[in-house]
Amino acid sequence: MVSRPGVLSSVRKVRFSSDLDRRDAGLFLHHRYRDVAANDGPEWKIDMWPLAEDYASQRSSGLVKPMRRGLDSETRAAILSVKETYLGREDVHGIDVYRAVLDGGVSTAGECDTWFVARGPTGLTDQQPRARP
Known about the structure:
single chain; 133 residues; alpha+beta; three-stranded antiparallel beta sheet; 3 strands; 17% strand; globular
């Protein structure tokens, strides 16, 4: 039961797919959300990829500690700035922005574009963020 009025009206799109036959077998949940109170506010994309308990590759929970080691006020500001520039772009994934900033040392969307062209999108990855010097 929804306890706050307007919560469901904020959900713009929900997509579910069973991708159990793919290499990264799992269930894919894609949500689009926009705060109703902020009519012209950004639309948020929330993707979830539940995987089987015996999934052999990296899980996002394994990225938390290495990512935290790489985050400081400078990298946080760069990530937020780049993500804000990319709002609404379907071809840019949050994990790729984190990788570009933390591993590639980029700090602007332009540098990020160059980094993406050189490396391409990753999708699910078992890559660990490198520790910053």
